[in-house]
Amino acid sequence: AQSVTQLGSHVSVSEGALVLLRCNYSSSVPPYLFWYVQYPNQGLQLLLKYTTGATLVKGINGFEAEFKKSETSFHLTKPSAHMSDAAEYFCAVSLSGGYNKLIFGAGTRLAVHP
Amino acid sequence: ETGVTQTPRHLVMGMTNKKSLKCEQHLGHNAMYWYKQSAKKPLELMFVYSLEERVENNSVPSRFSPECPNSSHLFLHLHTLQPEDSALYLCASSQDPGINTDTQYFGPGTRLTVL
Q: How far is CA A17 from CA A82, A83, A85, B88, in A?
């Protein structure tokens, strides 16, 4: 069965520092991969997704992620953190075939301090 | 209104109550979803609807009863819930449930507390 692991339930960075949020998946076939962000008291918002093609995906708010099949990873990065990036981030996978079912990781809460 | 809206935003209910959660999407999508977000567990898919037809029931207890009267509205009827059902219930929609690359758009959720 497919699963998603996000290493680190809490990550803290300084404003201006690199943000790296880790996501690994287990799947017998390459999945489609998503990163969502959830701000306090809000629903989830798509940051970016990988379907096919270029493995480096750019998203909103300066975030990007790279699909590495050999490492079964889809880590999220941002070169310079901003205070407004403080939120919870979820990695998710969806497999081809069947219905559009997202399987989520447990989430990583990002704190940004001055 | 734009996007996906959910009402109420907060709900407190006793274990013997019956209540309903409402979701409405203004995106013209054909698929709608219910997810449960608990404090210590990953988001869990509960139900998938495609053009008002339930196409996925992810082993959800019968005390949760979904209803999709049209492609814009989705309800979750609740009865005889347990305290462990307390969670954030999120509704989402997408253009086509058969396209696994489709983005799902989420509402803000209903925070449910069962006493």
A: 9, 11, 12, 32
Residue B62 CB-density burial (10 A; 0-12 exposed, 13-18 middle, 19+ buried): exposed
Contact B80, B15 (CB under 8 A): yes
Residue A68 phi/psi, 5° resolution? Answer: -120, 100
**CB < 8 Å to A26, chain B:** none
> Smallest Cβ distance to A102: which of B4, B6, B104?
B104
Pairwise CA distance, residues B27 & B2, whole Å: 7
Q: What is the per-residue pLDDT across A24-79, written as a single tens digit (0 to 9) for each?
A: 998 777 789 999 999 988 899 999 999 988 999 999 999 999 999 999 999 999 99
Instruction: Give the distance from CA B76 to its chain's centroid.
Output: 6
**What are the Cα distances from residue A18, in Å, to A35, A91, A112?**
17, 18, 11
Query: Could you please report the per-residue DSSP string of A10-35?
Result: EEEEETTS-EEE--EEE-SS--EEEE
Q: Is A95 an interface residue toward B (CB < 8 Å)?
A: yes
